[in-house]
Design a protein that fits this description.
6 strands, 11% strand, two-stranded antiparallel ribbon, 4-stranded mixed sheet, globular
Length: 214
């Protein structure tokens, strides 16, 4: 049974949602029958490829939030992440375009390494690693298990851009307004970083229906 997940590596709730979904999947007795497919989504495709802006400055400019509001929200996100075993160094995160990372994730998907790519890029992003640096991207690609020459070719070209655009277009056609967005068996939707029990319920219900028509 298929589970599709639209996410952006720049989205803290996507990383938190990933961990909560994985917890539910691990406890699901028929998890060997579940095929997870990660889909690309960009929260802000207008960001520059070499942006150096910090999260707090970006939020102040884009959302018109005060320093105290931003601080409270960031702390809330950090605490949520910690509860799922995620370390987030939000004060070190660079705001820049995530397209290259998404293109590398698409490469990883062709090798059966989509989940590993998502995890490694989430981790790198929220630890504040400079993903605008080609050498850093190659290090992360190596950690994923990608061939360095193939990864370098993707970084230095526009390869897999069409695949990213296709995922984003598909998201729009099914009415995705934000991420993470989970679709179970082409039918049941879970939106946001919901509790693991919510994901477990969606897995059980969709799997039961899938099993009947398989």
């Amino acid at each position: 049974m298929k589970v599709e997940i639209w996410s952006d590596v720049a989205c803290p709730f996507c990383y938190i949602g990933k961990k909560r979904f994985e917890k539910a999947l691990e406890g699901f007795s028929n998890n060997k029958d579940i095929q997870v497919e990660w889909k690309s989504f960009q929260l802000d495709p207008s960001l520059s490829q070499q942006g150096k802006e910090k999260v707090q400055d970006y939020m102040a400019q884009q959302k018109g939030m005060s320093a105290s509001e931003i601080s409270a929200m960031v702390q809330h996100v950090i605490q949520m992440a910690q509860s799922e075993g995620i370390e987030m160094k939000m004060d070190q995160v660079i705001m820049a375009n995530t397209l290259t990372m998404h293109r590398l994730i698409q490469l990883a998907k062709t090798k059966g390494l989509g989940e590993q790519a998502e995890e490694q890029f989430f981790q790198a992003y929220f630890l504040g690693r400079n993903f605008t640096d080609e050498n850093i991207l190659l290090e992360i690609s190596n950690d994923i298990g990608l061939n360095e020459a193939e990864a370098k070719e993707v970084i230095q070209s526009d390869k897999f851009t069409d695949e990213v655009d296709k995922d984003i277009y598909e998201a729009r056609t099914i009415g995705v307004k934000g991420v993470p967005h989970f679709v179970f068996n082409d039918k049941y939707v879970v939106s946001g970083a919901q509790h693991s029990d919510t994901f477990k319920g969606a897995l059980e219900k969709s799997y039961e229906e899938w099993k009947q028509i398989k």
